[in-house]
Each structure stands twice: as C-alpha cells, then as structure tokens.
Amino acid sequence: xxxxxxxxxxxxxxxxxxxxxxxxxxxxxxxxxxxxxxxxxxxxxxxxxxxxxxxxxxxxxxxxxxxxxxxxxxxxxxxxxxxxxxxxxxxxxxxxxxxxxxxxxxxxxxxxxxxxxxxxxxxxxxxxxxxxxxxxxxxxxxxxxxxxxxxxxxxxxxxxxxxxxxxxxxxxxxxxxxxxxxxxxxxxxxxxxxxxxxxxxxxxxxxxxxxxxxxxxxxxxxxxxxxxxxxxxxxxxxxxxxxxxxxxxxxxxxxxxxxxxxxxxxx
Length: 267
Prior knowledge:
Number of helices: 8
Number of strands: 13
Shape: globular
Structural class: alpha/beta
Radius of gyration: 18 Å
Largest sheet: 9 strands, mixed
Order of helices and strands: EEEHEHHEEHEHEEEEHHEHE
C-alpha cells in the first residue's frame, strides 16, 4: 500500500528551497489559510518591568509553531514596540521631535522582531524578518512578493519598522501588510483584554463585550480596537479583524478554528 502524500511536498523549482507549503488534506480546518497576527510590544514584557521576557516570547513562539505546523496556516506577524519606546507618548513626555520619536519606536519593533525570530528558530521554525527601513546586516528589506513566497514555503514572516513612515501606527501597518500579501484576516492579540467592549472593562465593571461588531459602529463609537486609520482601511478592503487575549495559552489556535469562540470579530 503506497504511503499517503505528505502535507509538505518537495519543491524543486526554487534553488535552496526544501519544501513547499501545502494545506493539509485532513485534520482541523482553520477559518482562514493566510493571516496577519498583530502583536503589541507590551505582550513581550516582563510583568516586573523588563522590556522582554524570554519565557513569554518562547511561549508565543511555541503557539505560533503549533498553528503553523498543525493547521497549515500561513502566518505573517506585525510586531509593535511599545515595550521599548512608543513614539507619540515619548514625544509628549520627553519633548522629543515627533518624527524622531516615531523612528525610535520603529527601531524598538526591530528588537522585538529579532527576539521573536530567535525564539521561533530555536524551536525549529524557519523565519524571516523583513523591515520597512533597510538594515541589511540583520534583516531583509520588505519586498511583497518575497514575503508571499516565504509564506508559501512554510516560513513565518515578521514585519518590523512599521510601514517605514512616522505618524503611522503598527496597527495601520498590520492592515496595510494584510492587504498587500492577500491575507484573509487580521488577528490582533492584546495583553489586557479579551475582546472589544462598549466601555473600558478596567474601569467599568459593567462593560459588555461584543461577540461581533461592524466597522461603522467601531468608528462611530470610537471603540478601542485599532486606530481609526487601520479600521477605515480594513473596512475599505473588507478585512475582518479578530481581537483576542494573547496571554492565554491556546488562544491563537482557538481563534483560527473558531472553536471555542473567543474574542470579538470586527467585520
């Protein structure tokens, strides 16, 4: 009896390539086959104040590898830098020029991207970091077609430096990159809440969580999902967003499977 075909098949067209990424014909069926995962920089931080906690980054990497290998989801990641430097806050608090402060924040995203890349590769997951500002000694420049090819080969792609321009958040970058690489959804992992609420649940115990909410309602009520530029972009390009708690183990997988239903779907 012949062996069953492997989910990972040999790709002989690309020199240096070992495998081409193919969806698994059996097993759990994810809701989307290619997604952008948006991670806040604060998700990497030690609760005691250190900007990067190695154990937390290793756990996040482990969950990413789980969905990448078991569910065969093509996964690109946009990382924030708020655990190291937040441009708007730094400009207001320290009196630094806003453009300069934003560039400092972009460099912070590179530090987080390299930390995550290292954690993924130490667990055996091929990974590429691409930066919107060229720094060829440590990462690839962002090239859309190259990023898509990496994903097709089963590599995780991490996007750093935002979109390379000041005054734009990494939320907007996640929306932009998702549209560019033809992702089917954005997964926004937070470190403080488990979805979108009609009020701040940290200050209002009566706040109610939405299971699903429309883009227009998010904009009209100024719900804190992503910045308004990102929400408008997702609405114009029909990109669904799932907001969920990144800090609970297994939640990335649960979001992709929709079972159990967690977080809030913005669509």
